[in-house]
Specification:
This is TIGR02206 family membrane protein. By secondary structure, this protein is mainly alpha-helical. The protein has nine helices and no strands. Helix content is 71%, strand content 0%.
Length: 233
């Protein structure tokens, strides 16, 4: 049990990190280079992604429970990536467009945690497998839905997602002291740890809006390329 519990966190651009990036790259190429095949087989791909996502949730929380490591400080589905993963499950079942826009913008933070991993387990660890599976699905799902279902973001979607993010950040800020947690890394800050909380929160809001603005342009480009150049359904 100790063997499974113990791990050495992966290093940025270390072997495990590069392996994670390579696996994501392979799935991204399969998706982006075969839009017509993806669209034609969406009735099989979508439930497959849904099942894999559900299994990832079982692996994550099953690990916490089996190894008696479930704590409200670390194990609740309050990290943004976990919330996005749960929203993705609901979206894959319901196909609600409103969820798509929130997932698309929230997924941008997953790029940060994937490219600059903090205290992440290697691929030989159950939580490392969970991390990789979660991020591959979360990062590629917006592009999959654009390609497979021809969904486009609307102009006001960014502001709606930003409003939900703002509510999440302020809620987590007050929940962290109660739970003893570090959700959204607002307690043990990954950078600029010497800043006061108000200043740091203002910075989070500014950077988040910039990130959403960049993501908006990326999603618009993807929509233009895969929807307007291909035959619509």
């Amino acid at each position: 049990m100790e063997f499974v519990m113990d791990y050495v966190p992966i290093r940025i651009l270390g072997l495990n990190h590069l392996l994670y990036v390579a696996i994501l790259g392979c799935f991204a190429l399969l998706l982006l280079m075969n839009p017509k095949s993806v669209r034609a087989n969406r009735r099989r791909i979508t439930p497959t992604v849904l099942v894999i996502n559900l299994l990832q949730q079982c692996l994550l929380y099953g690990y916490f429970i089996y190894f008696d490591s479930f704590t409200v400080a670390e194990s609740l589905p309050l990290h943004l990536s976990r919330i996005t993963s749960i929203l993705a499950i609901i979206f894959l079942i319901t196909k609600k467009r409103q969820l798509f826009s929130v997932i698309a913008y929230f997924s941008l933070f997953a790029w940060l945690s994937f490219l600059v991993p903090t205290d992440i387990q290697p691929i030989t660890h159950p939580l490392g497998v969970s991390f990789l599976t979660n991020h591959v699905i979360t990062l590629l799902l917006p592009f999959y839905m654009i390609i497979a279902y021809q969904i486009e973001l609307k102009t006001n979607d960014k502001y709606i997602a930003y409003a939900w993010l703002s509510l999440y950040v302020i809620s987590i800020y007050y929940l962290n002291p109660i739970l003893g947690g570090n959700y959204f890394y607002l307690v043990n800050k990954p950078i600029l740890n010497n800043l006061s909380d108000p200043v740091y929160l203002v910075g989070v809001y500014i950077v988040s809006f910039l990130l959403f603005s960049i993501g908006e342009q990326i999603f618009k480009f993807a929509s233009h390329y895969y929807i307007r150049k291909d035959v619509k359904l």
